[in-house]
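Re-running Alcohol dehydrogenase to confirm reproducibility after the cluster update. Everything else is unchanged from the original entry.
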Amino acid sequence: MIMRAVAIGRYGGPEVLELVELPLPEPKPGEVLVAIRAAAVNPADGKWRAGMFAGFAPVGFPHILGYDVAGTVAGGDGLPVGTRVAAMLDPFIKGGYADHVAVAADRLVAMPDGLSFEQAAAVPTAGLTGSQLVERAVDARPGQRILITGATGAVGRFALDAARRRGVAVVAAVRTSRKAEALALGAEAAIALGEEDWTGVPFDHVVDTVGGDAVAALCRHLRPGGRIATAATTPIDPQGLPATPEFYAVVADAERLGRLLEAVAKGEIAVPIARVMPLEQAAEAQRLTDAGGAGGKIILAP
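Result of re-run:
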C-alpha cells in the first residue's frame, strides 16, 4: 500500500520539500501504525532540512520531517484501532509529514476528550521541552525566582506554567508587545528582551528559548551557583557569565506528555494555533516558521 508524504531528497531551503508517494509503513513488534490527522511544524524541522545537524546526525534520503503528531490508531500492537493518540516521534527518525507513521507504542498517549488533533499535535515537543527545562535542566524549587526568555512562545509558555505549578516566581523576557501577555500567563514581572535590563534581585536560574547577545546580557544577573539552560540553537556567549549555558535536548516522556495534554484540554494552558495548512503546503509552512513571528504553531493536516 502507498501513502503520501512530504520528504527531502537533499539538504537545502524549503524548496527541497517534495510531496511524494512512499510505501505505507509496516509496524514492527512493539509499534503502532497511526493515521496522522495533524502534524506540527517546529523550528527544528527547518534546521534538520538545512543539514544543520548533519555532522552528528546525518539522514538518509528520501527523509520525512516532522516529529509531533496526532491521529488515530490504524493497526499494530497495543491500543485499539480508532483510538485518538498523540506522540513525539524519535527526532532522529521523524516521519510526521505524512498520512501514516509507525510509532513505538511507549511513545503514544491517548488523547483526552475535548482536545482537537491540531491542539494535541502542537503540544509534544514544545510542552516537553518547556516543562523539562524547568523541572529537570535547572530543577527550579519553590520560592526561587527564574528568568524565562521567550516566555510567550510555544516552549516558553510551557516553561512558565511548569514554574508556576512549582511555586517558582518568573521574570519573563519577551518582545515589548508581549509583556502584557506574559503577565497574564502568570509571570511576576516582564521586561522587553534586548531593550530593558533587569534591576531587581538576581535570578536563581535562567531558562532560555531564544539565545543570542540579548539573553547573555540578562544572564549576568544570575546568582552564584545558578544554572543557565537553553533550548535555543542560537548560542549564548559565555564570556563573563556566572555560569556556562548548557543546551538541553528534550527527552521523550509519555507520562509527562499525558499530563500536559490533560492541562491543555482543561484550558489550563493555551496553545495558540496560527494556521492549519494542507500537507501539500509544507514548504510554505516551513518558510513561515523559519521567519518566526507567526503568533502560534503552524499545523499540517494530511
